[in-house]
Amino acid sequence: MLVRMRWSLILFAGLLATAATAADFRREISADTWSRPRAGEVLVELEALRATVRDWTRTVNGRIEVRHPGGEEGSLWAAELRDWLVALGVPSKKVVTVPGYARSDAIGLIVRNAERP
């Protein structure tokens, strides 16, 4: 009986961990992709951007985190991407930029519930 309870607890903890991470939607845009000429028509064709906006619309109290490489170049990249998200209809208060992305050649887009840390 104790073994069955232990397995039940392990299974339950695994389900909780899966539920916590399943609520976040993660995408990346590479520097090569971003370096192409940018216009509204081109940006809406970027799968990562389109999927991010779609996931944001489906997330209750959602926010979009723009994770960018540090430094001036990364900050400028994130600010431009944030401006495009706003131009595509995402309220500015729902988009936050976060420096320190692990990759220097990409920017990360994360959709999550704003009530979660």
Would you summarize the structure shown here?
The chain is α+β, with helices and mostly antiparallel strands and 117 residues long. 50% of the residues lie in helices and 22% in strands.
What tags apply to this protein structure?
117 residues; alpha+beta; 60s Ribosomal Protein L30, Chain: A; four-stranded mixed beta sheet; 50% helix; disordered N terminus
Query: Rg from C-alpha positions?
Result: 18 Å
The total tally of domains equals: 1
| Largest beta-sheet details | 4 strands, mixed
Could you give the order of strands across the largest sheet? 1-4-2-3
Low-confidence stretches: 2-22
How is this structure best described in words?
The protein is of the alpha+beta class and 117 residues long. The chain has a single domain, classed as 60s Ribosomal Protein L30, Chain: A (2-Layer Sandwich), CATH 3.30.1330.60. Helix content is 50%, strand content 22%. It has a 4-stranded mixed sheet. Helix 5 links the parallel strand 2 and strand 3. The longest helix has 21 residues. The radius of gyration is 18 Å and the shape is globular. The N and C termini lie far apart (37 Å). The N terminus is likely disordered.
